[in-house]
Amino acid sequence: MPAFAYIIVAVAAYLLGSMPTGFLVAKAMGIDIQKAGSGNIGATNAMRVLGKPAGIFVMLVDAAKGYAVCYLGLIICDLFGPNLDYIASHPVPDYTSMVESTNLFSERMHHFAILAGIFAVIGHNYPCWLKFKGGKGIATTAGVYLALAPAALGIALAVFILSIVITRCVSVGSIVAAAVLPVAVWFTKEKLFLEVVTIALCMLAIYKHKSNIKRLMAGTESRLGKKPEDAK
Asked: What is the rounded CA–CA span in Å between residue 114 and residue 120?
């Protein structure tokens, strides 16, 4: 597979992921979301500043970005054809070799989808359009894993909801879900590469919540039903 194919996937996924949904929706409503609430462009701050309908819309679009880029990776990979390597090295068709080549292609497609997911999250968290000040990647990461590992996402989502019900704190739900997702992937998937990537993405998500963690430790973190201090 040509190296530039990987570059195309990474750049395309980053650009799509970097679309600042919250910022654009707020701008359309005459609000600079970076100067309102927590200043975060993610769904939680959008919900608190712009209202629930707008916030839910931002959350869904941010998740859709993550979901869509995984299939974008598959499409770009497919453009090069499942058997290019085989055809180049085997002028005379051989069924066994062709099957092995196709299986290798399937593995590459999986890697392309994962690569796209990685750069979509990076794009959301660090959009070039907003001086690399973006969201925390929770909704976009959820979209990525809806495509890559839906069963694992379901487990993490259940933990997310349960954590919020117990603590009334969205940041706690996000942090706990990020900690659980790699474990869920381990028990529902056999792909080591996906597990390694999941650990890295979830560490990034937790890192992006560092200010929330400080407030949780100080007992000053905002909770549902109270005036917010930060958002995803």
From this structure: 10
Alpha carbon 93 to chain centroid, angstroms: 40
Locate 46 and state its tokens.
Answer: 């959008």
Q: What global pTM score does this model have? A: 0.83
Note the pLDDT tens digit of each residue in 150-177.
Answer: 999 999 999 999 999 999 888 899 999 9
- What local confidence, expressed as pLDDT, does residue 16 receive? 95
